[in-house]
């Protein structure tokens, strides 16, 4: 829904950050489709080709495309929506350190990176995006942006991803309890994830329609 809306209103947004946010939504949709390859393999009887390989599960797709890819995007996004030189430096330095750390983790813990949620990278990813969002909110509170905050796409992006991170991240660390022997937890986790995804992407959809590009 948010991708379709974004493509429809794309021509109305002249800001490079707004346009690339819409492109980012398309990117998320694309890698979600790619990450579903284990289901495609089962559906078409190809599971034996990836069984007992590093590609049997799709953790590596999310580690690369979400944990690393979205960190780079949101760091860039907030960097370009913040005017404070100090905040920009913080974002730049933590992102560079994150990239070096991620490369090192992939090099020395390749099997874990491919076959599990790379929790050290994931934690760094969450930390950086939350820091970026908080720096954005702090600048907004101390500037004239506060007068028109509800008209800017960047405010809704920051709010959506911040709330999503706060709720979604703890669920990942309880994945070990997501088993058929505890279906109550499985249903609860699925419901929470459904609701926060609906909330975030609905917020993005609303913002793309409501926000006036001249304020962004």
From TrEMBL:
TM region(s), chain numbering: 20-40, 60-79, 91-110, 122-141, 153-174, 194-211
Keywords of this entry: Membrane, Transmembrane, Transmembrane helix
Protein name per its UniProtKB record: Uncharacterized protein
Source organism (scientific name): Hanstruepera neustonica
């Amino acid at each position: 829904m948010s991708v379709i809306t974004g493509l429809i209103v794309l021509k109305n947004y002249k800001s490079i950050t707004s346009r690339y946010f819409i492109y980012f939504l398309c990117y998320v949709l694309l890698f979600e489709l790619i990450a579903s390859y284990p289901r495609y393999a089962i559906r078409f009887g190809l599971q034996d080709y990836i069984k007992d390989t590093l590609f049997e599960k799709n953790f590596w797709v999310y580690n690369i495309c979400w944990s690393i890819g979205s960190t780079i995007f949101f760091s860039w996004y907030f960097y370009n929506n913040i005017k404070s030189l100090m905040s920009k430096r913080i974002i730049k330095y933590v992102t560079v350190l994150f990239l070096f750390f991620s490369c090192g983790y992939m090099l020395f813990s390749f099997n874990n990176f491919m076959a599990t949620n790379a929790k050290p990278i994931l934690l760094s990813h969450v930390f950086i995006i939350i820091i970026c969002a908080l720096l954005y909110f702090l600048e907004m509170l101390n500037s004239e942006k506060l007068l028109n905050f509800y008209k800017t796409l960047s405010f809704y992006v920051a709010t959506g991803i911040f709330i999503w991170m706060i709720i979604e991240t703890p669920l990942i660390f309880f994945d070990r309890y997501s088993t058929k022997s505890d279906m109550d937890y499985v249903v609860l986790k699925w419901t929470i994830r459904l609701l926060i995804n609906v909330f975030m992407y609905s917020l993005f959809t609303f913002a793309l329609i409501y926000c006036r590009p001249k304020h962004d």
